[in-house]
Amino acid sequence: MAAAGNRAEIIRGLFAAYLANDRAAVEAAFAEDFRFSTPYGENIDKPRYFAECWRDSGWIGRHEIKRIMVDGGEAFVTYRCVGRDGKSFRNTEFVVFDGDKVSRIDVYFGPSHQDGELVRQER
Hints:
Blueprint: H1 7-19, H2 23-29, E1 30-38, E2 41-45, H3 46-53, E3 60-71, E4 74-83, E5 88-98, E6 101-108, E7 112-114, E8 117-118
């Protein structure tokens, strides 16, 4: 992961670890009291996150980080994820740090596209 104090680089390192399917690096980046929220689940703890939310990232072709905005111990990252099947989606995540560890991620889902067209997502 990144050098201490550089939160934008820590976020970039997380995205690289996801793409490499490097669960150990992601686990190491998360604080012990890590919490994760999406519209599908709120305040999921670290063990539950890895049991229910972690999946093999072989389906991801690439991440395109559009922006990272850091303000002290908090950051927003907006990215486009492109799957190997050509589908893509854009999300924004709110990331909270405790020192150099990620203590919280709140995910805000964006639209999905394939071949330039909106793809309606099943819940």
